[in-house]
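Aim 2 progress update. The chain analyzed this quarter is reproduced below.
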Amino acid sequence: HLKKIAAESHQMLVEAYGEHALGKSRCFEWFKKFKRGDFYMKNEERGRPPKKFEDSELQALLDEDDAQTQQQLADQ
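Predicted structure tokens:
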């Protein structure tokens, strides 16, 4: 039942806000929070791993070969 309500609500948001609407997965997460009684609406920061390179290092790799894919750059 909760999934149906969340899906319908998300569809209404998409109809109202188009591409600026809340994402479907975020909408479902919020509905789960509401069911638990958690009505705090601010998006929590998502943990991101620290950068493992300096921008200058990435630029140097691109200067060597600017046709490298993201995967090739990541493997270096």
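The chain has a mean pLDDT of 83. Helices lie at 2-17, 24-35, 55-64, 70-75. These observations will guide the mutagenesis experiments scheduled for the next reporting period.
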